[in-house]
């Protein structure tokens, strides 16, 4: 049994945090699915590396040039092709899992992160254009994104809520999901191919390694080296404790009775940034039921080679609480740090998106002259 299959037995699904045309056309994605990968996530940085950093898409860009497509239209055509083909490959996983897994995620334009109505409109457009039941639309957990989550779930759209770093933000995301389900249960889906309350799916993408990267800088200044590399896991374990409480309470029960699915926590940013840490740290230490870990290629290879499979997410919860309390005692404001990380994340996703558009424009001009 592969380690990914062992993970699944413990209730955690491994998704692949990468997409590129050659991954699909070479058969590599099918091989990964056969090994136990159960979903795919993408983001602007991933697409920027895929499209700008390879020749995989040049022929398609040439064809789209001949159709006089704009840069935005070329990007969407390329991204939709990849997302659609990946979703088709994962459709069997979607069907056999009863719609639990088998999803491919595509992000709303990151420049809409602070605009609620435009995010809703864009997410619905993307979802309806792709026209596949196993596509998730990624929406950031910003102040503007939270109400968009409710409206999209209420419409029957699968949502991957991204850029969650802190506990208060996570609680707001879970509340927005439940509020959306309550509206969906009352009205039914309102978009093309929208899902009813017992089929719509969502994950809450809780970012991990970036928390250590930020907190550890402060701990280094305070000469607290014994605390390095512990804050992100502690923060994540407390988020999971919140998840268990939220999705077992009295508000959740009527929705559960109608077949509604919990909004699984998805661990994102799980590659190890500090070379002093074990390279599978953020996979090994966050294994538990009703969760997803979206794993980048190098980390997946490492986990398959020497990762440890055991339920770790529910262990040492009190120690996790003490770790977070120690940060406060040292004067480190975790909520302020996680809010800054989200603000930075919105900018960080916008930059590769802009770079991608510039790269497509340059390729378009170069290929027109060829």
Quick description:
It is built from 17 helices and eight strands. It is of the alpha/beta class.
Number of extended strands: 8
Structural class: alpha/beta
Helix content: 55-70%
Strand content: 5-15%
Q: Please tally the helical runs, counting DSSP H or I stretches of 4 or more residues.
A: 17
Can you describe this structure?
The protein is built from 17 helices and 8 strands. An 8-stranded parallel β-barrel has the order 1-2-3-4-5-6-7-8, surrounded by 9 helices. It is globular and about 60 Å long. By secondary structure, the protein is an alpha/beta fold. The chain is 56% helix and 11% strand. It has one domain: TIM Barrel (Alpha-Beta Barrel), CATH 3.20.20. Helix 4 runs parallel beside helix 17 and helix 5 packs across helix 17. Strand 4, helix 9 and strand 5 form a beta-alpha-beta unit.
Q: What key phrases describe this protein's structure?
A:
8-stranded parallel β-barrel, alpha/beta, 370 residues, 17 helices, TIM Barrel
SSE layout and pairings?
Elements: H1 3-9, E1 12-17, H2 21-25, H3 28-35, E2 39-41, H4 44-52, H5 58-66, H6 71-89, H7 91-96, E3 103-107, H8 116-130, E4 135-140, H9 145-155, E5 159-164, H10 167-187, E6 202-207, H11 209-221, H12 231-246, H13 252-257, E7 264-268, H14 281-284, E8 291-295, H15 297-306, H16 317-329, H17 334-369
Parallel strand pairs: 1-2, 1-8, 2-3, 3-4, 4-5, 5-6, 6-7, 7-8
Helix pairs in contact: 4-17, 5-17, 6-17, 8-9, 9-10, 10-12, 11-12, 11-17, 12-16
């Amino acid at each position: 049994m592969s380690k990914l299959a062992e993970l699944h037995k413990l209730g955690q699904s491994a998704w692949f945090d990468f997409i590129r045309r050659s991954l699909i056309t070479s058969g590599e994605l099918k091989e990964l699915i056969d090994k136990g990968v159960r979903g795919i996530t993408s983001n602007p940085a991933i697409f920027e590396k895929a499209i700008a950093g390879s020749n995989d898409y040049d022929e398609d860009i040439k064809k789209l040039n001949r159709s006089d497509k704009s840069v935005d239209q070329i990007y969407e055509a390329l991204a939709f092709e990849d997302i659609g083909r990946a979703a088709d490959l994962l459709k069997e996983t979607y069907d056999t899992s009863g719609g639990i897994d088998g999803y491919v995620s595509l992000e709303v334009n990151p420049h809409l992160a602070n605009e609620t109505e435009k995010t809703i409109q864009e997410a619905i457009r993307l979802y309806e254009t792709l026209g596949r039941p196993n596509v998730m639309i990624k929406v950031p957990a910003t102040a503007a994104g939270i109400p968009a989550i409710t409206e999209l779930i209420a419409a029957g759209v699968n949502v991957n809520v991204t850029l969650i770093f802190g506990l208060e933000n996570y609680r707001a995301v879970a509340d927005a999901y439940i509020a959306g389900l309550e509206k969906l249960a009352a009205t039914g889906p309102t978009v093309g191919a929208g899902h009813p309350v017992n089929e719509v799916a969502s994950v809450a993408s809780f970012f991990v390694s970036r928390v250590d990267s930020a907190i550890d800088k402060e701990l280094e200044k305070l000469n607290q080296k014994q605390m390095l590399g512990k804050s992100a896991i502690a923060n994540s374990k407390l988020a999971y404790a919140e998840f268990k409480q939220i999705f077992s309470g009295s508000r959740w029960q009527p929705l559960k009775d109608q077949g509604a699915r919990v909004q699984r926590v998805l661990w994102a940013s799980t590659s190890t940034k500090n070379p002093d840490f074990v390279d599978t740290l953020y996979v090994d230490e966050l294994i538990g039921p009703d969760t997803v870990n979206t794993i980048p290629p190098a980390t997946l290879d490492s986990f398959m080679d020497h990762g440890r499979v055991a339920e770790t997410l529910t262990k040492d919860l009190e120690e996790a609480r003490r770790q977070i309390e120690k940060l406060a005692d040292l004067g480190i404001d975790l909520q302020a740090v996680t809010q800054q990380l989200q603000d930075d994340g919105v900018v960080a996703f916008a930059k590769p998106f802009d770079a991608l558009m510039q790269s497509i424009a340059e390729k378009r001009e170069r290929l027109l002259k060829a």
